[in-house]
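Problem: given the chain below (270 residues), write out its structure.
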Amino acid sequence: MQTKTPRRGTIRLTRRGRIALIATGAAAAAAAVAVPLLLPDDDAQPESLTIPEGWRSGQVYAAVDKALGVPAGTTKKAIPKAGLKLPDDAHGNPEGYLFPATYPIGSGSTPASVLSYMVNTANKKFGGGQVTAGAGHNAVNLYQTVTIASMIEAEAGSKGEMGKVARVIYNRLDQGMPLQMDSTINYALNRSTLATSERDTKISSPYNTYARMGLPPTPISNPGEEAMRAAVNPTPGNWLYFVTVKPGDTRFTASFEEHQKNVGEFNKAK
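Solution.
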């Protein structure tokens, strides 16, 4: 199959990447998982901090800074001394392990304590037998599974598509194909966009899955449970390509020719 980088507005081998920047509020709270956060006893009613699925670490740090009323950058600076229980593969980077949930915040909360509970929650959610049992079947370890889940979170247009997106990722890995996910380029460029140019696909970055084989070196967001389930148990299928022609119409196929036709419809609908 062709692996030449497509020009903007022509062939996209996968759906254009998407990072959903959900505002903290009622909509986000509805999607998040309520997690109890043990705090020192105090008389003040704790406020809540909601971390939606798919947020990047930078967004989480900024939200914690704001919730605790500390100067911008304080939470990120607290990471080295926070004693976070991260896997060795993470090399101290908590991306992917700041679990999306609604956390109560009290007067005794600190950046380190909030981050620790997020990571501890992720370890509990990701470390259960149901999650890790399927990871070995796909020849990836747990950290790589979280990385795949983060791409699923960014690429899938709906929760119903997550299993198919997961299968495309595994099929491409199995066949030695580059993943060519726009979401990983967006992560490298610290942006969120549906438009990826030919120039973008040539950037020098370990997150450029057009130019580099295999998975990106770290997760590209903090995935929720649905994305992790999809990463562990992808939907059976032979798909290698997908493109969202219009909202609610994402087409998966194993045929490059059919994918070309789908992308043509996408380009007409833009």
